[in-house]
Specification:
The chain is of the alpha/beta class. The chain contains twelve helices and eleven strands. The chain has a six-stranded antiparallel sheet, with helices on both faces. A five-stranded parallel sheet has the order 3-2-1-4-5, with helices on both faces.
Amino acid sequence: MAKAIGLISGGLDSLLATLILKEQGINIIGVNFYTGFCITETRKRKGLPARNLPAETAEKTGIELRIIDVSAEYMEIVTRPRYGYGKNSNPCIDCRILMLTKAREIMLKENADFVYTGEVVGERPMTQMKPQLMLIEKEAGLQGYLLRPLSAKLLPPTIPEKEGIVDRSKLYAIKGRSRKPQMRLAKKFGIDDYPQPAGGCCFLTDETFARRFFDLMTRKTITRVSHEDVVLLTTGRHFKLNEKARLIVGRNEVENRILQQYASHRIMLAPVNAQGPVALIDGDVTEEDIKRAASFLARYCKGREGIFVEIIKRGEPPFSISTHPERPEVVELFMV
């Protein structure tokens, strides 16, 4: 029986690509790569219902699924992408090359016939125009062995098609950003429960995250980001205290707990006589910076007059300062 390695994102496109090949009797091993930047990877910690979309795809299609952690290598790519960033901090071309290179390694190890994805010609401007698709295929070492079932008829025939392993006549010629063809195809397969077919799940494509990401790289002059950096970039409200220090204020109880977990080598602030969030100061600050941070924190407390804020520094006795909430228009000026 023919065997394929499929990149399973958990979205509608990879689900359909899998069903198309299953219909032809192809044995499939699905792979999903953990990068640490996918929104669905952090849902649980943000208090939203945990949902493993790739696992749901595997269950619906009856395929084997392997979750592979590439986060360490991915951190290197994020800070130094060979092919640059997209609109925000998303190194999409380098990302695809990494994942498909890993998929090729699995293909060779498993003696599989080819790799496939749910990519659609023209669906995403940075990675799914024809020139980029061909570039990524070449850089991943998969020339002739990368099948895109949803758009195969718009692309040169692959080796598995030429050898009759896959029937090209049963593949598709979907193109562009409209998802209506995929939704019709889902209906044909009897699939009515699938993720929203538009949009992405990667924090790196988010404008706010990108702003904080580039701010972090600039003020810390780092050559790679850590998992801890990513967690803090996606947590709370961020404010500039000086060129090298940022204040992070929790937005809910879950985020408060996350900030407390990362307080050991940072300054933590917490209201003493009012209900409100906790906050962290990341970076070196002056006494005036701490006072400003306390007034920003007070802005988000209940009972907003005469608030005492406790300042906790590792290795030093805690102390409290009295403050008043800073005006909203001033706080917004410092937001990152």
